[in-house]
TrEMBL record:
PANTHER family linked to this entry: C-TYPE POLYHEME CYTOCHROME OMCC (PTHR35038:SF8), DISSIMILATORY SULFITE REDUCTASE SIRA (PTHR35038)
Name of the featured protein: Tetratricopeptide repeat-containing protein
Domain of life: Bacteria
Natural source organism: Catalinimonas alkaloidigena
Cross-referenced InterPro entries: Multihaem_cyt_sf, Multiheme_Cytochr_ET, TPR-like_helical_dom_sf, TPR_rpt
Annotated keywords: Signal, TPR repeat
TPR repeat copies, ranges: 553-586
């Protein structure tokens, strides 16, 4: 009853950067924006600089630094602290009817936990699991979610505090049968927008050697080591003069200013430009040099995601009428909490000064206190985050209802680039490929990719063939592992060779050597060892996975299965019980547990396990038949 190669969806935390977290820039704009900066910025020294952390800024910028700590950005990511709690921990548990789990958060002394439990009747708890909260993600202006850590691997927890409505509920994306419990991966892209100072282990998906803290100064100003060194050596400029050792976004062109915000507030399908790492972007550089961002286009003009501020603004008549140079800072002061900012009407009137600029009837205007934003930027609930209302940044005349309703879009949706007017065929193909992999496994998206396949590099073509269940092309069969430096491509080739009955171990080993902390590549190598008839190597490799992540579900099962094969009944049973304590509905673990119990002669416990399987899976005829055999054996004894 081996599980084979386990396929888990690699989730990342949705980019729930709070509405207040507009990653904007220094200064405010009191006049109409222009694409031409006051001075051409110099960013060369900044791109060569290293990150030093926000604390290094305080000695010279104490007032700005201290004010910033009260913004949503300044509180976006941190370790939990008993003095920083405003959630209602006395509220009733949250219930997931699909999986039949209850959830609650609680403090034990100075440590925060999230508990998962299942009850039978009013008093009988049939499952209980609790996990320590390592990090809080979200300022609490809108939401607070929670992360756990296992040997540097980060995972989101299933419970979120929704501050606007003052309630607990399942985390965004966990509803409607999509509860991944404590196993949703938190990757590099998540932390780079929710925080700063993290050190990601390359190719690991979700492992970090350092996690860092909240969104910091260098997110918008670029790495600061050159700037700090420059000023530590003595004053070199007077106040008000340009300082080329740091990026001050107010000196950037409007497009480059906008890019500083769009690095996180344009949430979509990211396509890396050829030879570029999207995470290598630095403020002051064109974002499009590093990545192209695509979003699905639908007819539902009111539908938008949580971190869609730039997408919606780019569709606004105000943005288009400005020559596409309207930025975020005319409305948002990045170093001040949103609550302290004055009415936005003055900003609107800087471009619409005439008394009759608003054509709405006086009665309607008075109903909203003559507030431009109330009508032209209504609050709605985004399609990807429940219990939250955010400002729609598509400035315009909105005749539709101000309450958001999810609209079913035609499938497949078309993807549009929001960072380029003329995306290349390569980038369009990769956008559909990534959208299929990350969001919607509709084969029609892969068909879209196939129309541009010749524009793709070899590794992307191999990935497409893997996802389409295609055989290896003859030219790819001739490849050797040393000719490929991308671990994902090595994994795809290995799995395709495995499907075709070809030797795969060298390719699996190459993937693991290139990405030693990628758990699924190492698990796949262990499974391939089993297929190749090398159980000892398989067991050793499963143990390597469990040394890194002791809760790896399929490794617990498969290692237990191998222990059954070598008649190590007690060790096998312990592994199955460990898996079931974490995953109480793990059918294969129950089946293998029965086998271990029978071998150990623990027939009554084997019967109880079979009764559970029969109750949960009444249509499986194997279980009643085996139960009859066990009962006969008990009677014979």
């Amino acid at each position: 009853m081996n599980v084979g190669v386990f396929r888990r969806k690699w989730y990342v935390v949705a980019s729930v950067v709070l509405y207040a977290l507009v990653l904007a820039v220094f200064g405010r704009c009191d006049s109409k924006p222009t694409e031409v900066p006051e001075d051409e910025p110099t960013t060369g020294s900044v791109t060569q600089a290293a990150y030093v952390g926000s604390a290094a800024c305080r000695s010279c910028h104490a007032e700005v630094y201290d004010a910033y700590q009260h913004t949503g950005k300044g509180r976006s990511f941190h370790a939990p602290h008993p003095l920083d709690r405003f959630e209602n921990f006395a509220a009733p548990p949250v219930y997931d009817p699909t999986l039949d789990f209850h959830y609650r958060a609680f403090w034990r002394h100075d440590t925060l936990y999230v508990a998962e439990f299942r009850t039978k009747g009013r008093a009988d708890t049939t499952h209980y699991r609790e996990e320590r909260v390592a990090y809080v993600i979200g300022s609490g202006n809108q939401t607070r979610s929670y992360l756990r850590e296992v040997n540097g691997y980060l995972y989101e927890m299933p419970l979120t505090w929704y501050a606007q409505r003052g309630l607990w509920d399942l985390s965004p994306g966990y509803e409607a049968g999509h509860n991944t419990r404590f196993d949703r991966l938190v990757g590099e892209a998540c932390l780079s927008c929710h925080g700063s100072g993290q050190a990601y282990v390359e190719h690991s998906l979700n492992r970090f050697t350092e996690v860092g803290g909240a969104i910091g100064c260098e997110t918008c100003h670029g790495p600061g080591s050159t700037h700090v060194q420059y000023w530590e050596e003595g004053p070199r400029a007077t106040k008000g003069q340009r300082d080329s050792t740091i990026v001050n976004p107010k000196y950037l062109t409007a497009t480059l200013q906008f890019d500083v915000c769009r690095q996180c507030h344009l949430e979509g399908v990211v396509v890396a430009q050829p030879g570029r790492d999207p995470q290598a972007y630095r403020p002051g550089q064109p974002l499009a040099d590093y990545q192209e961002i695509f979003l699905p286009v639908t007819d539902a003009t009111t539908e938008y995601g949580f971190a869609s501020h730039a997408e919606r603004l780019q569709q606004s008549p105000c943005f288009l009428g400005s020559g596409k140079v309207l930025t975020c800072t005319p409305c948002h002061a990045p170093h001040q909490p949103l609550a302290t900012q004055v009415s936005y009407n003055a900003t609107c009137q800087s471009c619409h000064p005439a008394p009759d600029a608003c054509t709405e009837h006086a009665e309607a205007r008075l109903a909203v206190d003559n507030n431009c934003v109330r009508c032209h930027m209504p609050k709605r609930g985004p399609g990807d985050i429940p219990h939250v209302a955010t400002t729609d940044h598509k400035i315009g005349i909105h005749r539709d209802s101000l309450s958001f309703a999810t609209t079913a879009a035609a499938s497949p949706m078309q993807l549009k680039s929001f960072t380029s007017d003329h995306p290349s065929e390569r980038n369009q193909a990769l956008a559909y490929l990534n959208y299929y992999e990350q969001f919607d496994q509709n084969p029609a998206y892969l068909a879209q990719v196939a129309t541009f396949v010749q524009a793709l590099e070899r590794d992307a073509q191999i990935k497409l063939a893997y996802l389409q269940q295609q055989p290896l092309a003859p030219s790819w069969q001739a490849l050797t592992p040393s000719q490929v430096d991308d671990p994902a491509t090595c994994f795809y080739v290995a799995e395709m060779r495995l499907r075709q009955g070809l030797p795969s171990l060298d390719w699996h080993r190459r993937a693991v050597n290139l990405a030693p902390d990628h758990l699924e590549y190492r698990f796949a190598l262990a499974s391939a060892y089993e297929t190749a008839g090398q159980p000892e190597a398989a067991a050793a490799t499963y143990l390597e996975v469990l040394q890194r992540q002791p809760e790896h579900q399929a490794s617990l099962l498969n290692l237990g299965y191998l222990r059954l094969q070598t008649e190590q009944w007690e060790e096998a049973l312990a592994l199955f019980d460990q898996a079931l304590a974490l995953y109480p509905d793990y059918r294969l673990a129950y089946e293998n547990r029965v086998q271990a119990l029978l071998q150990l002669g623990e027939l009554p416990e084997a019967l109880r396990t079979l009764d559970r399987l029969i109750k949960q899976y009444p249509d499986d005829a194997r279980y009643p038949a085996l139960r009859t055999q066990v009962r006969e054996a008990l009677s014979a004894n």
